[in-house]
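Protein record
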Amino acid sequence: MMPLRTWIGLSLALAGCAPQVAVQRPEPLPASCPAPTQTVLVLVASEPVEASARELACIQVRPSLLSFGTDSVALLQLATTQARQLGANLLRLEKPTSPTAGLQARAFQATSLRPYEQEILWHPARRLTPADFKGRARGGRCEAATHSGIRYRCRSQSWQRTARLTIEAYFDCRHSSFHPSRTPGQTLAHEQLHFDLTELYARHLAQRLQAEATTTPELTRRHRRIFRQLMAEANARQDQFDREVYANRIRLLFWRRQVARELQVLQPYADKQLTLQVRDAHEQLSAYVRGRAH
C-alpha cells in the first residue's frame, strides 16, 4: 500500500502542474446565478459586445511553472469551461498584459448570439435563417450564396500516447449572402442542403481517416491525399445538386430525402472525433487543414 505521504506529495505535484484559473466577479454580485450553458461563443478583443449583454466575470487562466508549455488552445478550453459553468454564453478575449499573464477574458450573458456569429458549426437542431447570411449580396440573378467548408485539426502529447483528430463542417456567415426573393423558404431550404452536404462529406472524411489512418505516422503520410480526394468529391456533388435543382426545382425534395438518408447511414461518425495511436514517444503532432466545399 502506498504511504499516505506519497499520495499527498503526488496530489500536490499534480496540482502544481495544472494551469491556474482565477475568476473575478463584478461588484455588486448578481442577485441570481445563471444556469450553466451549453454554448459559449468566443470573440477576439477587437469585437464589440452589445450594451444589453450582462457581464458575469473576468476569467484569467495562467500556466503554472510546471505547465508553462501549455498551448493556447488548452488555456482557451479551460476558460470556456469556466464561462459555461458561470452561465455565460459569450467570452471575449482580452489583450494580455504581459507574456506570462496567460489568457484573460470577460464572460457575458447575451440574450442572443446571432449578432456575434461569424461562422456556424453544423448541428441537426441549428438550421440556417436569412439573418445568418451576413455577406454582401451578389449581383445578377443569384438569390443566395452559401460559403461552407470542412476543416480538421489534430493534436497530441507524447505522454498520452494518443492523438485526437477533430473534424468540423462550418458555415461562413461573413461570406454567405441571401437576397429577398419570391420564394424565400425554398431558397433557404436550398442553401441549407448545401450545408447538409458539407456535413455529409465531413462524416465521409471521418470514416475514411478511421479506416486508413489509425496511427499518427499513417495520418502524416495520408491525410492530405485523402482530404484532397474527398473535397473534390464534395464539390462535384454540390455542383450536381445545383444543376439538377436549377433545371427542375421539384428535385429539391428528392435531394433533401436522399441526403437525410445518407446522413443517417453515417450517424456513427456524427461526432467526427477520432483517436489515433502515437507510435513514437517523442512525436509531437499538430495539424490544421481546411477546405471549401461550396
